[in-house]
Every structure is written in structure tokens, then in C-alpha cells.
């Protein structure tokens, strides 16, 4: 299992478009993927789960990945968060 902390960097936060993009990217991998915010954890391969976080800019999130391709999944997902979902 890989656990990484990221910060939501884009101005609008984790709204519908980036939530859908996170789910789409995560779905490429076999690894299970969960996002934790303030002690609450959601399945990050579920658009409803990710959107329910409604994480504004500056929110710290914990990404948890577990599976055969967890290393590559973690690398790509952390990069995506670090790039502000391409919206900065």
C-alpha cells in the first residue's frame, strides 16, 4: 500500500471536471484507490465519492493506493494533483 499526501492547488478546488478527470485517470489502474479528507474516506474510482469531498483550494488530501500497479498509479495521480488538474 502506498499513502501520499497532496494539496488541492487549483483555484476552484476539486469540482466536477477535475473530479471526473481523477476518476478517469484512476480507472486506468488495477490498484484500489481511496482519498481521505478530514478522517472521511471515499472510493476514488467513484465520481460520486470524489465529488462528495468538495475539497476547496488548499485542502490536504491523503491518497491511498493498493494493488499490483500502485507505484505507477501513485506517481501519475500525485503529479495530476501537483499540476492543479491542469487548471492553474
Automatic annotation (TrEMBL):
Asked whether the UniProt record includes Ion transport among its keywords, one would answer: no
Q: What is its main location?
A: cytoplasm
| Pfam families registered for this protein in UniProt | PTS-HPr
Instruction: List the subcellular locations.
Output: Cytoplasm
State what protein this is by name: Phosphotransferase system, phosphocarrier protein HPr
Looking at the UniProt record for this protein, which Gene Ontology cellular component terms does it annotate, in alphabetical order?
cytoplasm
One GO term (biological process): phosphoenolpyruvate-dependent sugar phosphotransferase system
What InterPro entries would the database entry show? HPr, HPr-like, HPr-like_sf, PTS_HPr_His_P_site, PTS_HPr_Ser_P_site
Per UniProt, what is one GO molecular function of this protein? transferase activity
Task: Show the SUPFAM superfamilies listed in the entry.
Answer: HPr-like
HPr domain boundaries: 1-88
Q: Which family does it belong to?
A: Belongs to the HPr family.
Q: Which UniProt keywords apply?
A: Cytoplasm, Phosphotransferase system
Amino acid at each position: 500500500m502506498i499513502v501520499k499526501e497532496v494539496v488541492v492547488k487549483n483555484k476552484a478546488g476539486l469540482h466536477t471536471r477535475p473530479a471526473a478527470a481523477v476518476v478517469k485517470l484512476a480507472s486506468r489502474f488495477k490498484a484500489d484507490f481511496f482519498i481521505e479528507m478530514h478522517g472521511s474516506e471515499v472510493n476514488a474510482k467513484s465520481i460520486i465519492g470524489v465529488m462528495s469531498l468538495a475539497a476547496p483550494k488548499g485542502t490536504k488530501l491523503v491518497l491511498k493506493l493498493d494493488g499490483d500497479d500502485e507505484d505507477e498509479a501513485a506517481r501519475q495521480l500525485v503529479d495530476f494533483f501537483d499540476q492543479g488538474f491542469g487548471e492553474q
